Records
---
Amino acid sequence: MTDFERILGVVQEARDRFVRIVYVLAPIFAFLLTFRLVPISLRWFGVTVPLAYPFPDPFDNVTAQLFRSVVAWMLPAHVQLLNVGVGDSIVVQMEIAALLTLILGMPWIAHEVGAFLMPAFRRDERHLVRRIALPATGLFAVGTFLGFTVLTPLTFRLLFRYVAAMGLAPVIGVQQFVTFALLYSLAFGVVFELPVFIYGLTRIGLVRAAAWKRHWRGAVIGSLLFGMVVTPDNSGITMVLVATPMVGLYLAGAWFARRWERRRDLRLPVAGA
């Protein structure tokens, strides 16, 4: 088999796996935009069990229901949402549906991507991927959950206190609100991946643990730059709120990397004997 044929085989496999991902994600996306969940309660052995059943409704769909819940949770009660553009409400529903689709379909996406990449890894690299896959998933979920439930609502309350102090009307565009809420919450999920990233680079020998400690000042600057890029507003407050836990997670990752190196160095004389 020639190199060109091998490349074509890889491209064909990537295409097939992408198509399989689309076959799973497309129905989920369509369902979120065309059905709403109607709550019901069932009595089961004297216990009330809350359930819901889908009902066709392309306007008051699952994304619209979730949007109203997010607004009630994140925004202060006195803040008014505005539909500035004619199609903003449609774009918002599609953005929420896309995010929910990725979350619900992530196990299948991870399966297909992992099956495609695993043959290219060495044995020790495959072992490392399996070892950090669960912690990486857990940290991303924890970071996104904390960002969505705690830090993003706190940020909105803090920013609108400045609005009130200046005597301005507390209003925000619906698309601006959703973009900020989604990006800001997901940013914390990405930030919580930092310890796994640092540990993984040290495990495969690309970066020694001492280098992480030596370059902590650069990590602080990088955290501020990352916070500036991922936050869709122009205030320094949100940048600092992202950068602060990022620095702490960087130090935690450096500690775990150093801890693994020490354990490895202790095992080396025994292995050589």
---
Amino acid sequence: MREYPLTYFDGDQELEAWVVEPKNAQPGKTPVVMIAHMWSGRVPFVEDVARAMAAKGYIGFALDMYGKGKIGHSVDENMALMMPFMENRALMQRRMLLALKAARSLPVADKDRIAAIGYCFGGLCVQDLARVTDQVRGVCSIHGLMKKPDNIDQGLWKAMALFLHGDADPMVSLDDWLALREELNKAGCDWQKHDFGGVMHAFTNPEANDPELGTVYDPKADRRSQILLDQFLQECFQ
């Protein structure tokens, strides 16, 4: 595999993705999986996901929402990094579109076969990407937040959508999901949602162990979600 940082910009803000290309990547013919990070930033976890995608034959593109080197190390720091995007969804959408443009610019990328997956905060980011562009084939939100944006009443949702969700996730209310489901159905989206019983937020992250916050790793849900994600990506790239 070949891996390297890729710099792109939002105005004066420097952003840095981590790109991992599979062995024998063919110019213009390699599918891309964009990976949107959790609230802590582009941490090693998402870079490992990019490597896992490359091992499956895809380009792993771990995008950057916050800016080069901006990583949170505590709940307070993570919240401070995330909240500007929660309060300004147009900013979130713009950063995702810029990441998509950067991913499409890769010489080995198949511009017509791109999917986006996201974890926690990143799950919401890929939802917003599907709201504003038809240039991705699928989006997968993994224990993602589900707050509708205040700047878009009805998203495009031309991409297939997969939601992998812990049924005991305290960060997503039933009202949040019902509003999202209504939006998906109005758009005629090809969507599916898998709930894991008794499972909390951040269930794919082995470092998550804070029941009071509601973030707890669950190895069974993690394993099952990976199988579902693999099947979904295969269908996206057929």
